[in-house]
């Protein structure tokens, strides 16, 4: 069963990450943010309790879209050009609440850490048993990644939200890719691309010592 025409499908979202990486192994911000916009729509479909999760992602995507449309837009075509521009102009290490706007680098770093969670979660979903619990997969992948960077109160709220996730097969169905088997196959195709985007970003940020930006 194919996804109904016009209906939201996670296939298109994950496809956006496929078009991120250029031949020169640069990560394009346009499709990266497009992928995030789609993920946020998907988070909304999981119910109101997920809105606090999506709210922060929306804010981060918005900051980046403003850079991509702003005066310096040609510097924000790829992650590589952004890092080079912001480092060369001393825009990166500003403390938060210093009155300076959040840099692209620190903002992307948050999305990048969340992408690690998403990747682990989808991988867990793909390889899980039919009767495995989505909430457990989600909590385990969160604890193994993003939770490290979150204070107790956010970790608590996130864990409560995860408990409301539907069973694995229902979850695979709301991805709107087809049957659970088709959704699993699609994840198998799409995940290497997300892993690639994650890997290139991680290497870029590590190389420039940007992995701990406040
Ligand atoms: C079903 C699985 C879906 C995974 C989608 C990933 C969405 C990630 C958004 C997590 C947001 C949690 C609440 C916000 C926390 C912020 O404090 C934190 N942001 C993130 C993205 O980790 C840190 O941002 P800050 O305060 O340094 O600007």
SSE inventory with pairings:
Blueprint lengths: L9 H9 L10 H17 L5 H19 L9 H10 L15 H24 L6 H10 L8 H11 L5 H7 L5 H28 L7
Bound molecules: ligand 1PW.
Taken together, the total number of domains comes to: 1
- What is the number of helices? 9
Q: Name the hetero compounds present.
A: ligand 1PW
In this structure, how is the largest beta sheet organized?
none
Form type: globular
Could you give a quick summary of the protein structure above?
This protein is mainly alpha-helical and 214 residues long. The protein is 63% helix and 0% strand. α1 packs parallel to α9 and α5 (104-127) packs across α6 (134-143).
Tell me what you see in this structure.
- This protein has helices at 10-18, 29-45, 51-69, 79-88, 104-127, 134-143, 152-162, 168-174, 180-207.
- The chain has 214 residues and is an all-alpha fold.
- It has a single domain (10-207), classed as Glycolipid transfer protein (Glycolipid transfer protein, GLTP, Orthogonal Bundle), CATH 1.10.3520.10.
- The longest helix has 28 residues, at 180-207.
- Mean pLDDT is 91; it is low at 1-6.
- The structure holds ligand 1PW.
- Ligand 1PW binds next to helix 2, helix 3 and helix 5.
Please give a handful of descriptors for the protein shown.
globular, Glycolipid transfer protein, GLTP, 214 residues, mainly alpha, binds ligand 1PW
């Amino acid at each position: 069963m194919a996804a109904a025409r016009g209906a939201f499908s996670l296939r298109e979202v994950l496809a956006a990450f496929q078009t991120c990486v250029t031949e020169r192994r640069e990560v394009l911000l346009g499709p990266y943010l497009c992928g995030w916009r789609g993920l946020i729509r998907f988070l909304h479909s999981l119910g109101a309790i997920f809105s606090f999760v999506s709210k922060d992602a929306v804010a981060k995507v918005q900051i980046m879209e403003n850079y991509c449309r702003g005066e310096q837009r040609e510097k924000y075509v790829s992650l590589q050009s952004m890092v080079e521009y912001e480092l060369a102009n001393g825009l990166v290490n500003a403390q938060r609440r210093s009155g300076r706007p959040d840099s692209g680098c620190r903002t992307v770093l948050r999305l990048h850490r969340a992408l690690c969670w998403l990747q682990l979660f989808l991988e867990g979903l793909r390889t899980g048993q039919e009767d495995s619990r989505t909430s457990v997969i989600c909590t385990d992948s969160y604890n193994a990644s993003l939770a490290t960077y979150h204070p107790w109160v956010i970790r608590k709220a996130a864990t409560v939200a995860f408990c409301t996730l539907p069973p694995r097969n229902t979850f695979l169905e709301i991805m709107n890719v087809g049957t659970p088997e088709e959704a699993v196959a699609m994840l198998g195709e799409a995940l290497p691309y997300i892993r690639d985007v994650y890997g290139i970003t991680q290497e870029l940020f590590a190389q420039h010592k940007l992995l701990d930006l406040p």
